[in-house]
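Researcher: First entry.
Model:
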Amino acid sequence: MIYEFEGMIPVVHESAFVHPQAAVTGNVTIGRDVYVGPGAAIRGDWGGIVIEDGCNVQESCTIHVFPGALVVLEEAAHVGHGAVIHGARLGRNVLIGMNAVVMDRAHVGAGSIVGALTFVPADMMIPERKVVVGNPARVVKDVSDEMLAWKTEGTRLYQGLPARLHAELRAREPLRETTLEQEALRASQRAIYRTWNETRKE
């Protein structure tokens, strides 16, 4: 759902996909090839939110801000399921892990990875290409070229998802039992991307 608030209407590029069960309110700008999943709440009621091209905001994420402030997700920022971004800035091509929290005026440098369940406190400045974990967050190592390439590949999958959803997503009644055609379709889903741990075992 897209909501006007006090005259401010979200701007969503036509190539972006905002799931009908997401809520986008007020002073929000969403760029090209952005994916916003069901259950996401992007609230530009008190301040502004800018989501640049190629970002994804996955299921049950919350993006909000204190009055008069601004949240920016720079190009290709990747926000995992259930994460909260409150008044922060995410640099280009960062990864925010599932259920992580990034607080006000924090800045996550380009190419950095924030681990799942990490708490990034207000005002924390994370340099470029760092791995950050814990509560409170701490830098534990650099992001290697290999790790950054893995992250970029995963984000690229999400950048292609909006077009697929525009073309193929439709509400349907469920089948009561599977069919041979459905079995063949389900069997055709391939492992085209793997977890970081799986790539390290090779």
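Researcher: Second entry.
Model:
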Amino acid sequence: MAIMTAQEIMELIPNRYPICYIDYVDELIPEKKITATKNVTINESFFRGHFPHNPVMPGVLIIETLAQAASILILKSPRFYKKTAYLGAIHKAKFRRMVRPGDVLKLNVTMKKVRSSMGIVETQALIDNKVACSAELIFIVADRDKKI
């Protein structure tokens, strides 16, 4: 059962079609962890150009999907509500499985550190409980109208 729908997600983060990748949030413990879902379909625009005869989700977009899940976790914190989370760094990224049309990505994000205007999260994208990608992401949080 989804605790946040795609519409509720778009009210929280600025991403829109064609680069809003989270379908729904399964679980959310503010300031601690989130589990979200991305259903990967053959209709994704990136499959037209990324190995059309052997469609594979680009690694950078798997990281982007994890970053969007992390943004939801960060922005659900009372101290960062109505702000924007910007990806500041990617550390320890590892790709272990290809993500293909028909896969269901379960995105697990755990908050590691939070400071006044930044956060560090550990992330995993899983297919059938097997790690497809993992990374540590660092976020910078700013007011929505502020340029960083």
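Model: Note on the second entry: The radius of gyration is 15 Å.
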